[in-house]
Amino acid sequence: MSKPEIPKGQLTPYQRWELDSFDERREIKETSIAYPTASEIEQIHQDAHQEGYAAGQREGYDAGKKQGYEEGYRDGMMQAKEKVDSMHLALTGLNQELQRLDEEISQEILSLSLAIARQVIRKSLDWKPEILLEVVREAVGKIPPFSQQAHLRLNPEDAALVRQEMGDELEHTNWKIIEDSRIERGGCKIETSSSEIDATLANRWSRVVSSMARNDEWIAK
After folding, report:
1. Splitting the chain (221 residues) into consecutive groups of 10 residues, what average pLDDT does each group show?
2. Could you give the CA distance from residue 221 to residue 83 in angstroms, rounded to a whole number?
């Protein structure tokens, strides 16, 4: 141990100063270190596990969210494409149906027009039977003059009109008028030894409607 300290007033001038002995050990206070207990270590493990689980859950959620977004985007685009394709198909079908209806209406209008034309022709012949004379002149003009066995077949009522208006002219060129009740008024047939011309209303009508890609019959009275 160290020597007791001598008050300053009690020191003599010659009092010898001595070092403290090196053999004396100083008292050292030991610092205590607190080690964690088993329960604290277990709690640390649990906290670390929960923190890692939470971090993994967040990462998994973010990854799943991103993947879900991408899959949802692809599904949405696919559904949108399917709807567009379906709409395009529906519009194509609608357009085809409209074209079909337009063609059908056009044909119905044409049929009505032809039916009206038939009635107009018949009425015109009733009101003005001399229209037939132009038909006869045109048909006869296609045959060379003085042809052998040149016969002009007409409805009996039309035959009377033609004899009255063209009898001398036809007789001069050796034409013979033959009455034929099978021929409807307004038409005629020409027969020679080498040719035949059908100028009946039914045949002339057929040529007209054929040019319209139609096959509407004349339908005689």
Report:
1. 54 51 50 66 73 71 72 81 83 83 80 77 81 89 80 94 91 91 92 89 88 78 59
2. 58
The CATH number of 129-210, from 3.40.50.1100, 3.40.50.300, 3.30.2320.30, 3.40.640.10, is 3.30.2320.30
Residue 14, pLDDT score: 47
Report d(CA 113, CA 162) in Å as an integer: 31
* Cross-strand partners of 191: 151, 196
Q: What torsion, rounded to 10 degrees, do the Cα atoms 25, 26, 27, 28 define?
A: -110
Which class for 66: exposed (0-12), middle (13-18), buried (19 or more C-beta within 10 A)?
A: exposed
Residue 137: partners with Cβ closer than 8 Å, 6 or more residues away: 166
Give pLDDT, residue 4.
55
